[in-house]
Specification:
29% of the residues lie in helices and 31% in strands. With 163 residues, it is of the alpha+beta class. It starts with 9 loop residues before the first strand and ends in a 9-residue tail after the last strand.
Length: 163
């Protein structure tokens, strides 16, 4: 990232198949998706699903990171995936993407949900530092012998939201 900092990046909606392909390649080559067995094709399907919102953190024309958000279904406000490109890690890009997601979700719903793999200890610490709390464990959910930890950040009960 050189001298550019997070404040010089922009967030935009996924606009093209080429951008989706770039993001799918990034996921295909990275943890936790390698261990979880999510390859390029599945990642591309997730990124191009019209029911999901995909936002990119852009450094000019370069993808610094992205987040996939689900605003429909049982867990409205569910972060399906978040990724920060290795050269941008440790520079606040992930926290910035999560803040963006929270602002987006909390306009309509009181909860942001996400799952983190039990072996992804650094990611879990990152989310907990941002105020996410473990609310459940899904054993053998994606791969046998591994758990996904369901995390939530809330601004209040669903029944009271918007009243």
């Amino acid at each position: 990232m050189g001298k550019r900092n997070r404040d010089e990046l922009s967030i935009q909606r996924l606009e093209s198949v080429e951008q989706a392909e770039t993001c799918a390649r990034m996921m295909d080559e990275s943890e936790p998706w390698i261990t979880l067995g999510r390859g390029y094709d599945e990642s591309l399907t997730i990124l191009t699903d019209p029911l999901r919102e995909v936002y990119l953190a852009m450094d000019g024309d370069r993808v610094a990171g992205f987040v996939v958000l689900e605003m429909e279904g049982a867990f409205t406000g569910y972060v399906k995936s978040i990724f920060v490109s290795p050269p941008y890690r440790g520079r606040g890009v992930g926290a910035w993407l999560m803040l963006f997601v929270e602002r987006r979700v909390f306009r309509e719903r009181p909860n942001v949900f996400l799952c983190v793999s039990d072996f992804n200890v650094g990611a879990r610490m990152f989310y907990e530092k941002l105020g996410y709390e473990a609310v459940g464990e899904l054993r053998d959910y994606i791969v046998r012998g591994r758990s996904e930890i369901l995390l939530r950040k809330t601004v209040g009960p669903l029944a009271e939201f918007g009243s």
